[in-house]
């Protein structure tokens, strides 16, 4: 696992590149989450892309 995002030195997102597993701190109910839908769309695009071509499914 690799820490790929932090806030105040606290891990907020991790990645396991070999297994293409991602975990991140996300609270969609928060009124301060202005880019929540963008975060989810980008995550799904990453997880569904063909790693040999770089193209999303």
Fold topology:
Blueprint: E1 2-7, E2 10-16, E3 21-24, H1 36-48, E4 49-50, E5 55-56
Antiparallel strand pairs: 1-2, 2-3, 4-5
Describe it.
There is one protein chain. With 57 residues, this protein is of the alpha+beta class. The chain has one domain (2-56). The protein is 23% helix and 37% strand. The chain contains one helix and five strands; from the N terminus they run E-E-E-H-E-E. The chain has a three-stranded antiparallel sheet, with no helix packed on it. A two-stranded antiparallel ribbon has the order 4-5. The two termini are 24 Å apart.
Question: Which key features would you list for this structure?
Answer:
57 residues, alpha+beta, three-stranded antiparallel beta sheet, two-stranded antiparallel sheet, 1 helix
Structure summarized in a few sentences:
This protein has one helix and five strands; from the N terminus they run βββαββ. It has one helix at residues 36-48; strands spanning 2-7, 10-16, 21-24, 49-50, 55-56.
Termini, distance in Å?
A: 24 Å
Q: What share of residues are in beta strands?
A: 35-45%
Overall number of strands = 5
In the sheet with the most strands, the strands line up as: 1-2-3
